[in-house]
């Protein structure tokens, strides 16, 4: 009798916990389509706004590649909940196991979702730039967990830092079944931790936050010169499709447009600095030159700081 009771209790608790799991994840990606962007490659393109109560922290571009035997994930999002929602989306396309995850850089909106894939597949291999792993462990991981929790008012609670375990080398190729992933590591572009991933067979490039489309970048941890260099490198690759860190995917024009944005801000700052101008005086002149980008999400909110960063970098050049 006692064992029957125990089994009943176990059944009830399992039912409740799976209900809680479903309740927690459902909704985060419901209004976002899973878009096929190349033969084996799919993406879900998150909100253009920053992490919020409304988007529950889902505001990056998770990508997955379905190989002959498995699934490869890139940038699984900002929290364990976003990662689980992504896994639900993958499950609608395939039952194949997720065997590899690649993280683009240390900013937590891109990689804290690792946890969901480690939970579901404890043998999953998680790759990143060696500096990404070092910085994440040195405190960036925890500060991003705290930031996400605050900005989403608790929608990401329960997220723990699941660090990548495999450090990549520049130009390293990782062969996964019928697919090859090539890592392009940058020294100091958007951060000191950036890896861009080329899916060779599909001619796709995942830039991480080295490129943005329709949304303003942040360069608080980056350099204009390094970011422009990363765009120059990317423009030379044999690719048809570009997935930026934020904003919709497209062709190589995304790289050219973003390079031009960086170039206008940086070079104009340098020239005006030579004329002894202060950054607040430069702002209207630079903004005028950036007409093409005025419609980008958070243009007004971000441009002042981006000019200050450009001036500081130009002064130290
Ligand atoms: Zn970033």
Question: Mind explaining what this structure looks like?
Answer:
- This protein is of the alpha/beta class and 317 residues long.
- It has helices spanning 2-25, 80-91, 108-111, 114-120, 130-151, 224-235, 253-274, 279-289, 299-316; strands at 35-36, 41-43, 63-66, 71-74, 98-102, 125-128, 166-167, 173-176, 179-185, 195-199, 204-212, 241-246.
- The strands form two sheets. The chain has a seven-stranded mixed sheet.
- Helix 7 (253-274) runs antiparallel to helix 8.
- 46% of the residues are buried.
- It binds zinc ion.
- Residues 105, 107, 190, 209 line the site of zinc ion (ZN).
Q: What structural class should be given to the helix and strand makeup?
A: alpha/beta
| Contiguous helical run count | 9
**Uncertain spans:** 14-23
The side-by-side strand order for the widest beta sheet comes to 1-2-3-4-5-6-7
CATH architecture annotation name: 4-Layer Sandwich
Rounded to an integer, what's the Rg over CA atoms? 21 Å
Beta-strand content estimate: 15-25%
The N- and C-terminal alpha carbons lie at a distance of 79 Å
Tell me about the biggest sheet? Answer: 7 strands, mixed
Question: What is the 3D form?
Answer: globular
Order of helices and strands: HEEEEHEHHEHEEEEEHEHHH
Binned, the helix content reads 40-55%
Number of domains: 1
Nearest-integer average pLDDT: 93
CATH homologous superfamily heading: Ribonuclease Z/Hydroxyacylglutathione hydrolase-like
CATH class label:
Alpha Beta
- Heteromolecules bound: zinc ion
How many beta-strand runs?
Answer: 12
- For this structure, the CATH topology is Metallo-beta-lactamase, Chain A
